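User: Hello! I'm new to structural biology and keep hearing that structure can be predicted from sequence alone. Could you demonstrate with DNA polymerase IV? Please show me the input and the output so I can see what each looks like.

Assistant: Of course. The first part below is the input, the amino acid sequence of DNA polymerase IV. The second part is the output, the predicted structure written as tokens.
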Amino acid sequence: MDAFYASVEQLDNPELRGKAVAVGGSSQRGVVSAASYEARKFGVRSAMSSVLAKRNCPDLIFVKPRFERYREISQMIRKIFFEYTDLVEPLSLDEAYLDVTENKKGNPSATLIAKEIRQQIKEKTGLNASAGISINKFIAKVASDINKPNGQKTVDPEDVISFLEDLDIRKFYGVGKVTAEKMYRLGIFTGNDLKMKSEEFLTKNFGKSGIHFYNVVRGVHNSEVKPHRIRKSLGAERTFNENISSEVFMLERLENIAEEIERRLKKSKVAGKTVTLKIKYSDFTLQTRSKTISYYISDKDLILELAKDLLYQEKMKNSVRLLGISLSNLNTEKNEDKEEQKEILVQLKFKF
């Protein structure tokens, strides 16, 4: 979906149409969750501090997020997807992968299917969507950003390599700002530059991600569309517009994050045993601290108590720009383990 949260607000409130809109808080420590395309022209982006966003765009209009409304429209859109295929893998409220190799419409053209789906979304919700079509998830994801907003891009099998070779490295899905800057220092600016590097070189400089980069630039990405992904963890994090060094302020932020996690856990009807605290310092170094207990929890107070223990576990190295909490080792994994055990038992039965 194109600028989903902001577009929903403009859809529901005609007075906002054609204007620079940011979904998020307008306070000193507020952060932009989403920005309309009118706002993006001024450099307003998601995760940007509200203060900086307002400085870039003085006429920016802030709107509080309405997640229930976004979920409602997201469900309408997913119903459209399921008219074409059951192989739908949602990534978030506004994005999903679809495998239409075999589809309910019997349409041999994925390009035409994408066009139909986008048209249906427009007719039923009034919102614009963009699409990427190709041989695997990685290339489709990259292609979906090429003709935004309200467009689509098909990368045919014979064009995959040339498409990736010409691509700016910043447009490779999974290459963030920090990774891009590191690649620049190594002389990697385009897909072709990346392709010229050996697997050994990429692994040495990027670890396991190096193997991923080596494969995807050659058009290799074997991840299937998984419609029934079992959730492995659930979390939330906050980036601050000003670095904080006071533990009092940190505890306030952690309390807000714990409340958000509790809400998500209750909605998903899950609980977990392992709490992980994520800390990103002002110099962008990242640290995680985890603690596992013997029982499942989903209560914000218990989550916060464990997060506090992890916060005080050792002295802060620097001022902090991001805090996050995640809960893993979820009770959803018990069902997965049972299925794996069943499969092993079946194998043993046949073996003996």
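User: So the tokens describe the shape?

Assistant: Right, they're a compact way of writing down the 3D structure. Reading them back into a model, for example: The chain has four domains: 4-65, 68-155, 158-216, 233-336.
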